[in-house]
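Our working data are protein records whose layout never changes between entries. Getting from the letters to the tokens is the skill we practise here. To make this concrete, we reproduce a full record directly below:
***
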Amino acid sequence: MKARTALISLFSSTLLCAAPIAVLAQTQAASTTQANDLPEVDKAFVQTASQAGSTEIDAAKLATKQSQDKDVKSFAHHMMVDHMKLAMQLKMAAPHGVAVPKDNSDTAALDALKPLKGKAFDTMYIQKLGVEGHQQAVAAFQKEAQEGQNADLKKAAQKALPTIQKHLQMAQDLAAKKGVQ
């Protein structure tokens, strides 16, 4: 009986701590980036690029489960594959000793998607992550490509920029096809 009570107590406290742990993980990812010995423009790029990529991957996983539309699922699969490659390229471009945050998705964006299904999910996914997310990513990659101080990160941004721009165009095309504003 004591073991059962202890197990229930442990399970309850684990559930109560789940949300703060997600926030803590995101905070730790941001502080890891800020601790990197890089110029501010490069720190901002590493944080933004890693968060955007992680968010795209997690949102794409949701889309494969929650969307009923084959075009949305196809787009999501493409995003998942490409952003996994881009995450690896970012990690490889980071100077020795610089930690690239992983699993630092935008939890607010993902939480907004999670309760949605079907057309409502598709609309928000295309609008917020497809179009708006890639507009922000293009801006971040362009800034690093133009203003970055670390040669390896700058080169990685320049190399990845056409892929991110292609994603934006794909998202805009999908939005037009599905009537998403």
